[in-house]
Amino acid sequence: MRPDLMPLSRAQRLALTATSFLFLVIATMALGPLIAGSGWWWLCAFIAAGTLFSGFGLRSIRTPPSLVPVLELVVLLLLLTLLFGGGTSVALIVPTAETFETFGELMAGAQRTIEQQSVPAIPVPPLTFALAVGIGLLAVVVDILVQTARMPALAAAPALVPILIPGFIIEAGAELPTLVLTAAAYLLLLRVDVRVRRRARLAAGEEGDQAATVIAPKRVPIVSTLGASLGLAAVGLLAASVLAASTPSVSTSLLLGSPSQGTLFARGVSPFIDLGRDLRRPEPLPAFHYLARDGDRPYFTLLTLDRFEGEVWSPTQTAVDGDNTVDQMPRPDGLSSAVETSQHPIDVVVDEVRTTWLPVPYPTARIEGLEGSWFWDDGALTVRSVDTNTGGQSYRVTRLDVEPTPQQLRNADRDLDDELASFLALPEEMPAIIAETAVALTASASPYDAAVAIQAYLRGAEFDYSTEAPVEDGYDGGGFDVIARFLETKAGYCVHFASTMAVLARESGIPSRISIGYTQGSPTDQRVDGVQRIEVDSHDLHAWPELYFEGVGWVPFEPTPGRGTVPGYSRPGAGEEGAPPLASAPPTGPGSTGRPDVDPDGGLAGQVADPVATATQLWIRSGVVALAVAVLLLLPALFRLSQRRARIRRIRRDERPADAAWDELAATALDLGAGGNGGETPREFAARLAEREAFDDARARAAIVRLRDAVERERYGPAGGGTAGAAASGSLVDDLATARAALLADAVGAERARALLMPHSLVDGVRRVLGGRARAGA
Amino acid sequence: MSEAAVTVGGAGAYDAPDFVMGIDEIGSRAAAVVQNVETVIAGKRDAVTAALTVLLAEGHLLIEDVPGVGKTMLAKALARSVDCSVSRIQFTPDLLPSDVTGVSVFDQSSRRFEFKRGPVFANIVIGDEINRASPKTQSALLECMEERQVTADGTTYVLDLPFTVVATQNPVEMEGTYPLPEAQRDRFMARISMGYPSPADELAMLSTRETSSPLDRLATVVTLGELRAMIAAVQHVFTSQPVKEYAVELARATRDDRQLRLGASPRATLQLIRAAKAHAAMHGRDFVLPDDVDALAVPVLAHRLVPTSRAIGAHDRDSGPLIDAVVRRIVGETPVPVGSARRI
Questions:
Q1: Is residue A321 one of the residues assigned to a domain?
Q2: Which residues in chain A have their CB less than 8 angstroms from residue B315's CB?
Q3: Which residue among B258, B287, B315 sits closest to A718, beta carbon to beta carbon?
Q4: pTM above 0.90, yes or no
Q5: How much is the CA Rg of chain A, to the nearest whole Å?
Q6: For A681, phi and psi rounded to 5 degrees?
Q7: CA-CA distance, A364 to A12, in Å (whole number)?
Q8: Of A552, A551, A555, nearest to A568 (Cα)?
Q9: Which DSSP symbol is given to A329?
Q10: No. of helices (H) and no. of strands (E), chain A
Q11: From the CB of residue A471, how many other CB atoms can be counted at a distance below 10 Å?
């Protein structure tokens, strides 16, 4: 502890603690624009209060100052266990090994939720956990600065972390009132500290003669501040990375400049293009399997693309709404009570697929049994998670089976809500062939008949399901150019069929969108009580159009020949006299699954189901952060190493060699915590070192004595009295190595690590230079 | 006849010693002397070393201690070890200056005044209880110490070299004493205190002195000529610029210190360096280390410094003499110089 610090009274400590708390929680409010609700803030305030005031309590009972931060961390751990440990703790607050596992999962969830959520984020448990950890650590740092180091001015550094984060994520940055309040709290903290100091000084002054005997050595405060700042920079970076990891969305991408590929579907880049890239990856991966009764063979939607801008299809970017929990999902848009519906439970077990979008049939009434936080999106009813993914999930989907009749579809009202306008939007530069095709197919028909005609046209003999088509560059996708070429060459795969039908439908005045997901999969022999196990793998990935009919809602079509199931209502002539019953037709094309022999759509697996890529991204980014932190932490060590090299060069060049050797020895001792003050002579220093256990060895002792004699003669002896020459400098280097080895051997591992990473001699060197100047000026 | 027109005597000038002594030999000779003296005064190595240091540095020593701890014994043993003349003056309130320096008496046969040399004419002069004499007598001795000569009736008698006064002073306040003023204390190169012997040493002393004084059996280990050669060699010990600066810095620190009313004089700085040279030579070194300065800072500086009344009031008497503590603190706080190339 610094000798010029006056002991504080309990009331003074309380005042400092209370203002530190106020400062920190007000600074935390800066995160407000990023996170929905205010519950998280109260939790942060609770954590900060628990940590800071436990520090106050510990100091009141005269706990050694160096121990207080450690115990505060323990308190933080207990609080986290209480709040997040769940049933894994003993007596609610004592963590067990399981608790730490839970914490690890929460941190992993926090990492995912950053990538997946957008602003404002929903404070799911992993996010609040990460926030709590971050605020707790900041509280400890603030407490160290304000109470232990008595440098409250530097408390601004940790408090800057929550203030700066919004600036990285949203354009406006932190809100002005919060900034003003934080500044006010900071000034209050400084004010309280000044008052406390003044009191302490006055109190010391009243003691009269007693005070006169306490003579503080003249210090240069800049030095300690400098050292503290260097340390803080490292702490700040660590804290920032923790908090950055606990805040949503772009922070990490911005930090490192690369968007996350693992969450492609959430990013609005056209999935088609990326899907096409992996078309030539033939290995199928089991995606998931489900147990369902006969007849329940739905398509599973991952996400829905509704925006078409000429080149790409993309989903409408919407923030996750925290109220949209999947235990109760709404009735789908446009579905009237006239349409027959029924609910069927399907048990889904995810095998290999890892994505933040949950494969669910459209429409779904509710989902049970999911781990983590999952929310449905308005309109599309797609389900996504903000803190976890599909890995290892096992859940029950209650599917709403909508069975419209062709008549209902044909009679659908043509007057559409304005809301649906976006599903009709087509860019202006449409190739003529598209318009011509649309006109030719849908001349005078109702929307339903037009849709059936388009599907029939695309499924006609003219069109081939082709693996050749995607070979050319730029053909992967659903843009105008691609569609135009597709209509000419009449060969392609599901992406082309789906996007073409969607565009033709829009051109004909039918709202359309494209769903991406899985077809119904391949049934297995396992069948229990009429429930069959059906396996879905990456070859079942698919894209299909959905068209909107007023009163029925979104209805899927299947324009891709040889894939999936053609819905009964969409077959030409359905609902007419003599038509086949309105059951779903059996799959057409080769194989019972409707899967083509050569399946380029299998390449879809490349993006959706490749956990390795996501993990690699994560590792690379963590690696870069870790590298940056490591470089920062290693800087002092590198500087120290170069200093040692320079001194050894000085010895070899015979440039005050003993002085250099001695400086290096003294610096090593200082690094190991065995340094002396400036008033120690080489002789005293050598004597002190020689008392250490490692110098019982005669060789080490002799080495240190030789070094000492050499430096004494060089520094204080008559000029030219030293033993010069290569032999002498060689022996100096050897002696230095021997003495250093003995010193290092004497230290315990922690001391050695500290000496390596935080060489105290560097700080001391700065202090000596400044101190020397100060003396010269005095 | 004008004053000091005639100069008489003065054997043993150092600029032309009988022979030149190497620095290594000084170390071994000094060790022999210390060892020899220690056979008489056990367990007081620091005091013995300090006394020898002062002798080699041509200074004067003030021993401040209670009676009967061996102050006189130390001086006598030292004198006997180096084969030089020793005299002892017991200072009393009625002692006259001439009792110290000598007196001119009329010789009937030659019909002229003849100067009877006083006890100050010796290589080592022991002044017992110097604070009991009147200031006038004290100053007579002090003049001899400074000038190394005695002037009587217009004739200046130069004292033989080496000349060292070992004065003792009783610290216990007594009536009828005249404590040495600060200015006069400044003339002593060093002040030491003997301290009581340890019980074991005291017990050993009882058995060795049962029959006779061990002083009688003390052998001479260094001749007077050798002593002069040693002193001459000490003068040539090298003192580097950083060490000189260090001594100046220490003195300056005592002058600026809050706890001190009076700091060290320039004479103190000079004597500190001289003593440090002797200390270095005794350790077989031909150059002075800051350690030599450190080792002698308390004996050389402490008796010259005067603490403030505030510091005296605040001082805890159980923790040893205040001034010693202050000097040690200043030594500890003053940065040790690291060499001329490194100074800014």
A1: yes
A2: 213
A3: B287
A4: no
A5: 36
A6: -85, 165
A7: 61
A8: A555
A9: P
A10: 25, 17
A11: 12
User: What is the C-alpha to C-alpha distance for residues A328 and A335, in angstroms, rounded to an integer?
Assistant: 17
| Chain A / chain B CB contacts < 8 angstroms | 78
| C-alpha distance from A617 to closest chain B C-alpha (Å) | 53
- Say what the pLDDT of residue A231 is: 54
Q: Which of A603, A617, A474 is nearest to A538 (CA)?
A: A603
Shortest Cα distance, chain A CAs vs residue B57, angstroms = 19
* Phi and psi, residue B168, nearest 5°: -115, 155
Q: What token pair was written down for B227?
A: 């002593």
Mutation target among A650, A665, A705, A715 for the B interface, most CBs of B within 10 A: A715
Query: Residue A36 is encoded by which pair of tokens?
Result: 């929905």
Give the up-direction half-sphere exposure of residue A269: CA atoms within 13 A in the CB hemisphere: 11
CB-CB: which of B243, B310, B339 is closest to A209? B310
Helix %, strand %, coil % for chain B, to 5?
Answer: 45, 15, 35
Q: What is the pLDDT of residue B302?
A: 84
Count Cβ atoms below 10 Å from residue A23 Cβ, excluding itself: 28
> Phi and psi for A309 in degrees, rounded to 5?
-120, 35
Low-confidence ranges of chain A (pLDDT < 70): 1-7, 116-119, 171-174, 200-284, 444-445, 466-477, 573-618, 675-679, 720-727, 764-778
Residues 6+ apart with CB under 8 A from B248: B269
Min mean pLDDT across A473-477, A517-521, B52-56, B222-226 is at: A473-477
Strand partners, B190: B61
Q: Say how far apart CA B247 and CA B294 lie, in whole Å.
A: 9
Q: Match 């005592």 to its residue by tokens.
A: B254
Question: Chain B residues contacting A, CB < 8 Å?
Answer: 238, 240, 242-243, 258-259, 286-291, 294, 310-311, 313-315, 329, 331-339, 341-342, 344
Start-to-end CA span in chain B (Å): 57
What are the structure tokens assigned to A184, written together?
């006010």
Contacts of B238 in chain A (CB under 8 A): 717-718
List, in sequence order, every residue forming a beta bridge with A394; answer none if it has no partner: A349
Can you tell me the ipTM of this complex? 0.78
Q: Are A252 and A336 in the same domain? A: no
Query: What domain range is A735 assigned to?
Result: 629-777
Of A215, A680, A776, the CB nearest to B258: A215
CATH number of the domain at A344, please: 3.10.620.30
Q: What is the pLDDT of residue A578?
A: 44
What architecture does CATH give domain B237-344? Answer: Orthogonal Bundle (1.10)
Helical pair A749-757 and A657-671, crossing angle rounded to 10 deg: 120
Which chain A residues are within 8 Å of B310, Cβ to Cβ?
A: 209, 212
Instruction: Specify whether A284 is located in the same domain as A431.
Output: yes
The residues facing A400 across adjacent strands are: A343
**8 Å CB contact between B192 and B63:** yes
Which one of B240, B310, B335 has the shortest CB-CB distance to A212? B310
The pair of three-digit structure tokens given for residue A469, joined into one six-digit string: 């088509």
User: For residue A562, how many other CB atoms are within 10 A of its CB?
Assistant: 19
Are A419 and A549 within one domain?
yes
Tens digit of each residue's pLDDT (9 = 90 or more) over B112-136: 888 888 888 888 888 888 888 888 8
Beta bridge partners of B64: B169
CB contact under 8 A, A715 and B344: no
What are A696's two structure tokens? 């019982």
Total number of domains constituting chain A: 3
B286–A678 CB contact, under 8 Å: no
Chain A interface, mutation test: which of B336, B340, B344, most A Cβ atoms within 10 Å?
A: B336
Nearest chain B CA: its distance from A668 CA (Å) = 17
**Which residues of B are less than 8 Å from A209 in CB distance?**
310-311, 313-314
Do A675 and A730 belong to one domain?
yes
Contact check, Cβ <8 Å, B339/A714: yes
CA A469 from centre of chain: 38
